Amino acid sequence: MELFTHGPGNEHPDIIEIEETALVRTLLVEGDDEGRVWLEEVDEELDLDITLQAAGVQRHHHVHHGRCHRVEVIVRWNGSHEHVYSPSATIGKVEKWAFGPKVANLSADQAAKHVLAEPGADHFLGVGVHVGSLVKPGACTVTLDLLPRSRFEG
Amino acid sequence: MRAHLRGGRFVAGVATGQWRLISLSWPFAVLAISAAERETGPKEFAVRFELTGYPHTAPTGGLWDVDANGSLPPDRRPKGERVAMLFRTDSWVGGATAMYAPWDRIGLQAHPEWAQKYPLEAWNPTRDLSFILTQLQERLNADDYLGV
To answer: Is the ipTM of this complex over 0.90?
Structure first.
């Protein structure tokens, strides 16, 4: 079956072909003894020593591998706001918190005109990006800026 | 281009119904992008991209009527503050074949300053077509998209 795998250092998923009978630990980077695996948007780690089928991993699921058990996300908007997520949490999930009453308190119309980006990046973050994909080596913290989308004007 | 179409980002978008490839006949590619359900709107819009020089040169693309094999008429283009700005129906030079955006070749030619003014959205050779598809898909599924 085809799976989408996400991991630190790459915002976008890789696509792999793997048997349902393979062990979950097969998804780890070779030689990574400290790695863990999560299903997208699920807080609990998967058991590494059961099959993908037994773990409930199905065709075209998105899975995340990495060493951070949790990722602290700091959103900068009128100060700094922190929240802890599973590494497989998506930017879409972070946006719901960041645009909501606990941070920016944007209306639906305003929220459509805002976005999250890493400081100094050359692009906004897509809603499908995993927060665990944004961590740097040796860290489990991600800082994001909440920014208005541009209105293209001449 | 074909490598990008086989990549995880593009295939993941296809798997979740965000977009799909309709045809590829170099240098043209027609792709459909899903749109949020609206009383007056279709399930998806097709865009015909012209990809000469891709990815070093920005693509350009406009809404496409697949059945008629021509540009989508103005009365069938998406409405809404942000998406209507991309697919302009006035006398802008890009007309029906280009997007008024810094990721579009014609948009950038009309406004060379956009590359510096909008670096988060401007085309550069490290981007791929999925970058543009993501921008379009977001606008066609946002609360400010109003159908046609």
So the answer is: no
